[in-house]
Amino acid sequence: MAHAATLLTIESSLNRYLEGIRRFPMLEPQKEYMLAKRWREHGDRDAADRLVTSHLRLVAKIDSPISDSDEWQDWSVDESASQEARLAQSRESGNRRKALGEALAVLDDPERRIFEARRLADEPITLEELASEFEVSRERVRQIEVRAFEKVQRVIKDPDRCFQVAST
């Protein structure tokens, strides 16, 4: 009997604790970042307290023996990408922009204008419009576009060939 009463008391205490941590709001990524910055740069203990309490649900989820239950999904942190994943995506995006910038640098002005207008614009410009702008045929614009695209592909696949491509 004493064992059952102890388990009941523990369960009751755990339920009160879990109810209590539900009162602490989960933070939006930007708010979490600002609080972490305040803690790191200024030693703001209130910021640290808010960061810690906002993650209590996650701690309870990780530490719990009923963590496989669907009920615990309500306690967990939101399903958005982690800060690490967002940072990796940001770096990857930056790397792609850098690679594209380097690739575009091997194009001459007409090639770059045509490539950007046809491949990078939200609303691509027609061959007819570019032909009129450069005073050449649509077919010539298409040929320049293909040649520019091939140069960009070669540079992106092998950046060391950048200078070789520029001379062709």
Explain this structure to me?
This protein has 9 helices and no strands. With 168 residues, the protein is mostly helical. It folds into 2 domains: 2-66, no CATH class; 91-166, Winged helix-like DNA-binding domain superfamily/Winged helix DNA-binding domain (Arc Repressor Mutant, subunit A, Orthogonal Bundle).
Brief digest:
The protein folds into two domains: 2-66, no CATH class; 91-166, Arc Repressor Mutant, subunit A, CATH 1.10.10. By secondary structure, the chain is mainly alpha-helical.
List the helices and strands and how they pair.
Blueprint: H1 2-21, H2 29-42, H3 45-54, H4 56-63, H5 83-104, H6 109-120, H7 127-134, H8 138-157, H9 162-166
Helix pairs in contact: 2-3, 5-8, 6-8, 7-8
% residues in beta strands: under 5%
CATH class of the largest domain: Mainly Alpha
Series of H and E elements: HHHHHHHHH
User: Treating each run of at least 4 consecutive H or I residues as one helix, how many helices?
Assistant: 9
The CATH superfamily of the largest domain appears as: Winged helix-like DNA-binding domain superfamily/Winged helix DNA-binding domain
Look at the structure and give the mean pLDDT. Answer: 80
